[in-house]
């Protein structure tokens, strides 16, 4: 995997960048030696109603566990993302919206954004939403998604955005977990020329969960959707009746800003909770530093707002930095595989940030669809979500960037709020496939399974030894689960769940998850969730799910399925099971391979030996290890024999 070739910082970049090599070294040192002074100074980038005097109050120890940043500070996120820019930037474009069809685009100025967000905030208030209430958003990539997030922030409500690709069941589970009384959705979504029945999905979800009193329905396609009297409200009508001015609620820095559900290695998805001051600071600071961002530059992060990348780098980071953020409703291959690059040319995008899975899919289409476009406006490329293989890195660098653009490979997680490990374009020499070095203030360690700290060039589990302002604060409603998941494996340290190698230059190379989470096209999926969905099917007795290498998706989903007695294994049943998982969780969870397993390899105490299942799925049949401790070693031989058929 590793590639020793070094791509040094160019003289132009060293010259223009906000942070050069010396600046990076100095900032790391300052953050280590005097964290309070360092972060207090850095946090002046935000507009505070009351500036914080207590900067960091953190302990990762069980006895006095706490994570608090800027705790006596008071601010409002919407103010920071909109109002404070108005005196000088009222007419600057805040959101450049590019619809699914290339003919459909719109520029929304900061002045317009203010009016729209205020209106939506007033509609929420009129529906009885108060500070601290949870509001579920189930929306396509339309400007109203950003308005809704900012409207919640403006009045102190806590948003929970659920990706539009999730099923009614998944949506219901998330509504229930945070007890939302209001859902904001659209009639339909539109992606790649296909419609997504969002409102119908909400209706189906609400048959399974009670407590939702209001569904606000935004018009996107104009489809004729069923409206439940007394519950469903057409947004346009409600918005026409309210003022376009709404004051900002003063929020404590540690008041919740949003919940975002993400998959873990066990159980149901966790509600990752981020708070107001630390999160906004981190989104804004990292956006400026990593992308060397200047106000007004056209920044395009291709992520959906249903994921954390969309929260931090479509909405909060760029808008806090007086940016112009491009919001794309569509997909990379519609109407043609040149779409990304055509959008870059159309809107003169300067910074482009996407996921390796999209690059690998486009790479397969050859260079011509890229080369037929100019891309002259680009000055920086970014990657996020999964390890980028050196081959994809080089294609991105040479074909998309014509060898002239640095690539920032940014490692982070839903839990981290924003980027933690990444090159800085003016400070860090690049190595294809490495996320390189931690940002100032981020203290990494590699440890072995027993928690021994590993020094020098080595591989181990990636932990973080101290807090940073953007760190998640808890699992919504379950402090114990928060502590147990992240702080119990290695006491006093945050465990990322990732394996990692550090090379002789101290560069970090993320090797992927070491827990039962798989990363499918840059999206996290818990194997336990897919297993639960499979065993809900009438014909399934047992299921075990693992990841396996996939050319485009990075990892694919490989499911071993044991059928109930008397049920015949056949291809139509495979299709039915795939369809069943899509329905239960959503299309992103659909298994790529189903392996009929008469039995699963288990220890005598009944624990499934996932290590062996992973090897078989990877088709690495030479090193299955010792199988003699299995309750029935013959099971493995059966699976190996039938591997070829999958
Ligand atoms: O395994 C790492 C991988 O994605 C996981 C986090 O997933 P999620 O919370 O969905 O957030 C994705 C977007 C930030 C990590 O534990 N990951 C993310 N970025 C990278 C990565 N792996 C390697 N290189 C990256 N740049």
TrEMBL record:
<keyword id="KW-0547">Nucleotide-binding</keyword>
<feature type="binding site">
    <location>
        <position position="498"/>
    </location>
    <ligand>
        <name>ATP</name>
    </ligand>
</feature>
<dbReference type="InterPro" id="IPR042099">
    <property type="entry name" value="ANL_N_sf"/>
</dbReference>
<dbReference type="Pfam" id="PF00501">
    <property type="entry name" value="AMP-binding"/>
</dbReference>
<keyword id="KW-0479">Metal-binding</keyword>
<dbReference type="GO" id="GO:0003987">
    <property type="term" value="F:acetate-CoA ligase activity"/>
</dbReference>
<feature type="binding site">
    <location>
        <position position="309"/>
    </location>
    <ligand>
        <name>CoA</name>
    </ligand>
</feature>
<feature type="domain" description="AMP-binding enzyme C-terminal">
    <location>
        <begin position="529"/>
        <end position="607"/>
    </location>
</feature>
<dbReference type="InterPro" id="IPR011904">
    <property type="entry name" value="Ac_CoA_lig"/>
</dbReference>
<feature type="binding site">
    <location>
        <position position="524"/>
    </location>
    <ligand>
        <name>ATP</name>
    </ligand>
</feature>
<keyword id="KW-0007">Acetylation</keyword>
<feature type="binding site">
    <location>
        <begin position="409"/>
        <end position="414"/>
    </location>
    <ligand>
        <name>ATP</name>
    </ligand>
</feature>
<dbReference type="Pfam" id="PF16177">
    <property type="entry name" value="ACAS_N"/>
</dbReference>
<feature type="binding site">
    <location>
        <position position="535"/>
    </location>
    <ligand>
        <name>Mg(2+)</name>
    </ligand>
</feature>
<feature type="binding site">
    <location>
        <position position="521"/>
    </location>
    <ligand>
        <name>CoA</name>
    </ligand>
</feature>
<keyword id="KW-0436">Ligase</keyword>
<protein>
    <recommendedName>
        <fullName>Acetyl-coenzyme A synthetase</fullName>
        <ecNumber>6.2.1.1</ecNumber>
    </recommendedName>
</protein>
<dbReference type="InterPro" id="IPR045851">
    <property type="entry name" value="AMP-bd_C_sf"/>
</dbReference>
<feature type="binding site">
    <location>
        <position position="582"/>
    </location>
    <ligand>
        <name>CoA</name>
    </ligand>
</feature>
<comment type="function">
    <text>Catalyzes the conversion of acetate into acetyl-CoA (AcCoA), an essential intermediate at the junction of anabolic and catabolic pathways. AcsA undergoes a two-step reaction. In the first half reaction, AcsA combines acetate with ATP to form acetyl-adenylate (AcAMP) intermediate. In the second half reaction, it can then transfer the acetyl group from AcAMP to the sulfhydryl group of CoA, forming the product AcCoA.</text>
</comment>
<keyword id="KW-0460">Magnesium</keyword>
<feature type="binding site">
    <location>
        <begin position="191"/>
        <end position="194"/>
    </location>
    <ligand>
        <name>CoA</name>
    </ligand>
</feature>
<feature type="domain" description="Acetyl-coenzyme A synthetase N-terminal">
    <location>
        <begin position="24"/>
        <end position="81"/>
    </location>
</feature>
<feature type="binding site">
    <location>
        <position position="513"/>
    </location>
    <ligand>
        <name>ATP</name>
    </ligand>
</feature>
<feature type="binding site">
    <location>
        <position position="333"/>
    </location>
    <ligand>
        <name>CoA</name>
    </ligand>
</feature>
<dbReference type="InterPro" id="IPR032387">
    <property type="entry name" value="ACAS_N"/>
</dbReference>
<feature type="binding site">
    <location>
        <begin position="385"/>
        <end position="387"/>
    </location>
    <ligand>
        <name>ATP</name>
    </ligand>
</feature>
<dbReference type="Pfam" id="PF13193">
    <property type="entry name" value="AMP-binding_C"/>
</dbReference>
<feature type="binding site">
    <location>
        <position position="537"/>
    </location>
    <ligand>
        <name>Mg(2+)</name>
    </ligand>
</feature>
<comment type="similarity">
    <text>Belongs to the ATP-dependent AMP-binding enzyme family.</text>
</comment>
<dbReference type="InterPro" id="IPR020845">
    <property type="entry name" value="AMP-binding_CS"/>
</dbReference>
<keyword id="KW-0067">ATP-binding</keyword>
<feature type="binding site">
    <location>
        <position position="540"/>
    </location>
    <ligand>
        <name>Mg(2+)</name>
    </ligand>
</feature>
<feature type="modified residue" description="N6-acetyllysine">
    <location>
        <position position="607"/>
    </location>
</feature>
<feature type="domain" description="AMP-dependent synthetase/ligase">
    <location>
        <begin position="86"/>
        <end position="466"/>
    </location>
</feature>
<dbReference type="InterPro" id="IPR000873">
    <property type="entry name" value="AMP-dep_synth/lig_dom"/>
</dbReference>
<dbReference type="InterPro" id="IPR025110">
    <property type="entry name" value="AMP-bd_C"/>
</dbReference>
